[in-house]
Amino acid sequence: MLPDCFLIILASLISSIIAEAMAYFFIYSSEGYKKLKFTIDRINRKLSKKKDLIPNIQNQKSHAKKLKTLQDELQSVGRSLSFYKLKSDVFIFSGFTLAFISTLNSLFEGKVVAKLPFEPFYWFHGLTHRGLRGNDFTDCSMIFLYVVCSIAFRANLQKVFGTTPPSTPSFFSTSQT
To answer: Which of these, 100, 79, 93, 73, lies nearest to 14 by C-alpha position?
Structure first.
């Protein structure tokens, strides 16, 4: 069980590195992504300057309107960037990750690869116990271990390589004026 567990973790790490390399090639090195990221950075700088500026009483209304305009523009460009990244992520997921998962799934079908230290919630049984026989829900299938490791590795690889998307204000964090 332990060698299978390490093999799946290693496979997850390798597939995450390959997926991030593909994402860099298809997304982060393209001119469209660089332009959108530069626009978001520029708008964020303008927005922070405007927020730091304290307007006088006569200009307070126009200042609030300019802030709202910049926030709307930032959200619009952020949506464009998210859509741009989503298209490439779907391509990478469908082309590479699904093929990799199906290959691993055929190798580890019906095999317990790890033992969970807890019994998962009922609605997670389908994922943690997928393809396994028996009713011991602390048994862990390959797909659950692979997915959890891939999520952790991709998030950390994005931080290491500096490819995390720029932050944009969310709907809930915008101030209502």
So the answer is: 100
Q: Read off the DSSP letter of residue 58.
A: T
d(CA 113, CA 9): 11
Question: Strand runs (DSSP E) across the chain, as ranges?
Answer: 114-115, 139-140
Extract the tokens encoding 143: 């797909």
pLDDT at 124 (0 to 100): 84
DSSP 85-128: HHHHHHHHIIIIIHHHHHHHHHHSTT---EE-SSPPPGGGHHHH
Mean pLDDT value across the chain: 83
Yes or no: say if 81 and 33 are a contact pair by the CB < 8 Å rule.
yes
Q: What confidence score (pLDDT) does residue 165 get? A: 63
Burial of 175: CB neighbours in 10 Å, binned 0-12, 13-18, 19+: exposed
Tokens of residue 146, six digits: 């692979």
Q: What percent of the chain has pLDDT over 70?
A: 92
What are the tokens at 42?
A: 């520029």
Residue 98 to residues 9, 91, 102, 147: CA-CA distances in angstroms?
Answer: 16, 10, 6, 11
pTM for the model stands at: 0.73
Residues 15-26, mean pLDDT to the nearest whole number: 86
Distance separating alpha carbons of residues 131 and 110, to the nearest angstrom = 5
